Amino acid sequence: MQTTLSSQYNPKEIEEKWYRFWEEKGVFHSEPDATLKPYTIVIPPPNVTGVLHMGHALNNIIQDILIRWRRMQGYNTLWMPGTDHAGIATQNVVERELATKHIKREHLGRERFVEEVWKWKHQYGSTIINQLKKLGSSCDWARERFTMDDGLSAAVKETFVRLYEKGLIYKGKYMINWCPRCCTALADDEVEHEEHEGHLWHIKYPFRDAPHLYIVVATTRPETMLGDVAVAVNPNDERYKDMIGETLTLPIVGREMPIVADSFVDASFGTGAVKITPAHDPNDFEMGKRHNLTPVVIMQENGTMNEQAGEYAGFDRFECRNALVEELKLKKFIEMVVPHKHSVGHCYRCHTVIEPYISDQWFVKMRPLADAAIQASKNKSVTFFPERWEKVYLSWLENVRDWCISRQIWWGHRIPAWCCQDCGAITVSSGTPQTCSKCGSAKLKQDEDVLDTWFSSALWPFSTMGWPKETPELKHFYPTSTLVTDRGIIYFWVARMVMMGLEVMRNVPFSHVYIHGTILDEIGRKMSKSLGNGIDPLVMIDQYGADAVRFSITVLTTEGQDLKLSESKFEMGRNFTNKLWNAARFIMMNLKDENPEGIEITPADYQFDDRWILSRLNSTVRSCTVYLEQFKFNDAAMNVYEFMWHAFCDWYLEIVKARLYEPVSSRDKKTTQTILAQVFDQILHLLHPFVPFITEELWQNLMQTVSDNKINLRNDGRSEILVCDAWPVVNKQYENQAAEDTMSILQNIIRAVRNIRSKMNIKEKQTLNAVISLSGDGEYNLEEHAGLLKRMANLERLEIGMNLPKPNNAASEVIGQIQAFIPLEGIIDPAAEKDRQLKHLNQIENHLLIVKRKLDNKDFVARAPAHVVTMEQNREKELLEQIQKIKLILNDLG
Ligand SMILES: [Zn+2]
Ligand SMILES: [Zn+2]
Predict the structure, then answer these.
(1) Which ligand neighbours the alpha carbon of 426 most closely?
(2) Which of 382, 473, 667, 699 has its CA 20 to 30 A from that of 493?
(3) What number of other Cβ atoms are within 10 A of residue 361's Cβ?
(4) Which residues lie at CB < 5 A from ion ligand 1?
(5) Sign of the alpha-carbon torsion through 662, 665, 668, 669
């Protein structure tokens, strides 16, 4: 594709153009190939309801950097994309949409509702995919998967059946968090806890055999007493020791129940005696199991009381609470009521108070799976970057409880289990069974529940590659290489993928886990809708270009630490892309010749400045590659940035202007052009993973210019697309420490002269004479670089030597081992300059007086905010330094 560089860098135009081009050429696609080394990343599938936020942007920028870099290194790269069906979240979105048309999910029925969700998915489900493309993500879109598509659904069923047959999946009674409004179980992290000003009701429970005596229990939820089956005390509690084993009568209900001893009871809380309601409290559920107590369920799924609640049957749970408390008061069962602050769980979706509820659920037995996952990290089959996250992963696995995988919603993978209507046996099958596996009856009913979304996400690294079929993809690309994710889902996702990979594939799903930081606002708060402090990545892309957004975010990623982001941070990326664009325009202009000659350039033609820039390039290639290997993305990017901006643009481009504008020979001009093109070519390669669009645009232009002007870059077999071209490698021949050392001295000399100009107020154009005195015991051979120095510092005469004396009436400056002297006679009027400097000195001294007065004022120091005092102290230091400098200048002026 031919391009000409417009004078203005217009990201929108080039980004759209190149993304389309890459997709048309299929450069992101790869096929299994046993002769190549694979490098694979599976995307953390965003929710199908998702809209790109800064967290996604960061996550995908990092993945794209890795994939683009490895692709250029020659790996057979696969970045597997896709989306997650996100069970409850998606069901809610569609429910809300239907509600605007006054349609309820229950009216439609399961089948039609699920159809509606699919319709929604087809209409809106690719929003986030298109946004990922805008960012430049080089996923293999031909392989895009969805956790509910046919292949992945087959993988889910197959895994369920296998785990069930091994006894790793079971059905059991369990205490779950239940939302009576949504009528579904909620995971622990789906419950939001809030402090609530409630009460502690102290209720008297009389002894059966001595009704005038009683034990007092305290509760925040009095209505649950209808389901009490015992009272527990701590076995070491002296107050109750003799009562253990006695029988109590439950007030109102009349149920007889024992006093049991359980060391779980905290003797110091309330009265030290607690009621046990196994069906309605998670701790009581466990205690009930320990003491073989049969739970009494008193509530229905919608939060109203059932027939076990006697006269309260049909009451809403909170109405029941009020009425029951009244009756208890009336019958003198209430000893006292005290205000009590406690935490109450709410449904994260509808904010209804959740109810601990006992129900039949499906579980994954975690211990054996978790032990294998612990082993995998201990033997380094899975390594975390930064390393500290391994501890988080391990501590969760070490304390893991069985995983409740059933959810009472409609959108998701329906559990492949059928209950026989005749004998009650359960048949689990990956297909649809026709008859009961126990009695042969054809009356089978499929379980109504669906699987937790994380169940299918846990299979993602192999289900996306076609498992349970033995596909070439699985064979070539599994296990994958690197997982890039957020610390928030180390338990939910990372650990579960490792468990499932080991169980199902007999191999870890990935070898490296890179955990990146969280994006925060400028002052360190999480970005959230309610705070309104979010920054929309799409708006930023629109304003600054995707490359600028990518670059800015990359340089903020310090080893997985959180990133403080504000809009102004994107200016850095924009300045950088602008700089790159302008450098390219300068280079292209200077590569053009009217009648280009094809001259074969060899290393013998290289000048000192060429040898220097090639050596610096070499070090940059080395360090950038090493940083990427260590997942130090900011260091990698900054390294190339520094090289491009400072070494290449500030120095090399300036130095070679003379060789381009007033060439000593056409061969030397060609050499300069060749090195310019070669170094810029390598810079574009190194920058490509970070800023893919602008580098492709500039590189295509460079290749065209180079070929039009018969410049030979001596690169064989290169690709015509930068995306697929080879990553730069270190070239030993270019290493030249001597050139680097010499150049750093030359740069110091030039800087010293420039500093003198600025402090003595001497114009750039004014030609000067300089005496450069070197100290130390180094071997300097700077004479041959006199031309370069004269040009860059605008010098007429130049004297260089060891430990030279300071000439009369000269300004001086010291940098490192060099001292520069500039005789001022005929350059400036020393008297006038002295006058100017004295005036300046006077101003500064006055300013210093004011600052000092403030700092001497004890009131000010005591009362002003600390940062204001610090500011004044810094100011004082600065002014003292300035005075010192001016005094040196005055000294030079005699
Ligand atoms: Zn709810
Ligand atoms: Zn049966």
Answers:
(1) 2
(2) 473
(3) 20
(4) 179, 181-182, 347, 349-350, 352
(5) positive
